[in-house]
Amino acid sequence: MLVDTHSHLNFAAFNKDREEVIKKCFENNVWMINIGTNYETSKKAVEIAEKYPQGVFAAIGLHPINLDTGLVKMKVDEEEGAHFEKQFDYENYKKLAQSAKVVAIGEIGLDYYWKPKTTKKKELFKQKQKELFLKELELARELNLPVIFHCRMAHEDLLEILNYKLKTINYKLTGVMHGFVGTVEQLKEYLKMGFYIGFNGIIFKKIEGINFKENIRKTPLDKILVETDCPYLAPPGFPEERNNPLGVKFIAEKIAEIKNVDFNGLAEITTENAKRLFKLG
Ligand SMILES: [Zn+2]
Q1: How many angstroms separate the alpha carbon of residue 96 from the centre of ligand 1?
Q2: What's the angle, vertex CA 168, arms to CA 166 and CA 169, rounded to 5?
Q3: Rounded to the nearest whole angstrom, what is the distance from the C-alpha of residue 233 to the centroid of ligand 1?
Q4: Residue 281 Cα, ligand 1 centroid: separation in angstroms?
Q5: What are phi and psi of 167, to 5 degrees?
Q6: How many angstroms does the Cα of residue 181 sit away from the middle of ligand 1?
Q7: Ligand 1 centroid, distance to 164 Cα (angstroms)
Q8: 35 CA to middle of ligand 1, Å?
């Protein structure tokens, strides 16, 4: 059995055959957590999860890229079917979280991929994302839920916030750095804070300055989560261009190879990790 800890069957890309995809996943012993990226996709993730007595869960949150800061022009993602939100509606997200299927707040964090034109706007853009992130961390704290972090080109700022938060609040923040793309030093910092590390199909890509193999080697087995980020990042050899939770098997195989452990053992331990962190019943 495997748990895809980061899928987006709640996205428009699966509107036509979502139920079939889920059925295939169950036939192959794959469970999943569908991750929200704004209010609409969060609500959808909850609705999907509620249709199934087990094996399908939801995370809710506003992804930094879906925050409309008015400072930069961002592309609408057709596969996601995204809406931008001008602010984080704390109470509405909190209401969504009342569903027993909601196992985490996410994906939330910082994303500095898009860059406003002036230095002043750049700073303000980062500031607004940080403010959003802090509000969502507060929601996780209030609801006592783990967090699914998204971070692109922003580890320094994210680590700074987390270091500060962990020192100043009397609260044990748990969570996973999803689709980790960073240095070994940054990896060690997240591990030191007790966070899990999520690996997906990005490990098959070449990214300057990033050593995925080393990151996987340096992450203890009991801290690894496997994920797909589907419909994106179909791993090499996956039979479809659109990824789905079945792709998680390819990730687990690659990690087992790098860690030099057998596939079944890796499947078992990563499934235990997912169940422990997200309290999956
Ligand atoms: Zn995602």
Answers
A1: 19
A2: 75
A3: 10
A4: 23
A5: -80, -35
A6: 13
A7: 25
A8: 7
Rounded to 10 deg, the angle between the 155-168 and 119-143 helix axes is: 40
pLDDT 10s digit of each residue in the chain, 281 long? 999 999 999 999 999 999 999 999 999 999 999 999 999 999 999 999 999 999 999 999 999 999 998 898 877 777 877 678 889 999 999 999 999 999 999 999 999 999 999 999 999 999 999 999 999 999 999 999 999 999 999 999 999 999 988 877 767 899 999 999 999 999 999 999 999 999 999 999 999 999 999 999 999 999 999 999 999 999 999 999 999 999 999 999 999 999 999 999 999 999 999 999 999 97
Do you know the residue count of the chain? 281
Q: What is the 3 CA–ligand 1 centroid distance (Å)? A: 15
Helices (H), 169-210: 184-192
Q: Which residues surround ligand 1, an ion (CB under 5 A)?
A: 229
Give 8 Cα–ligand 1 centroid separation in angstroms: 7
CB 199 within 8 A of CB 227: yes
Q: How many C-beta atoms lie closer than 10 Å to residue 192's C-beta?
A: 10
Q: What is the DSSP letter of 64?
A: G
Query: Is 17 in contact with 43 (CB distance < 8 Å)?
Result: no
How far apart (Å, rounded) are the C-alpha atoms in residues 147 and 154?
17
Separation of 205 CA from ligand 1 center, angstroms?
A: 17
Instruction: Kindly give the distance from the C-alpha atom of residue 6 to the centroid of ligand 1, in angstroms, as a whole number.
Output: 6
Q: In what order do the strands lie in the sheet with 196-199?
A: 2-7, 30-35, 56-60, 102-111, 147-152, 175-177, 196-199, 224-226
Among all chains, which residue has been given the structure tokens 């490990």? 203
C-alpha dihedral, 91 to 15 to 7 to 146, nearest 10°: 10
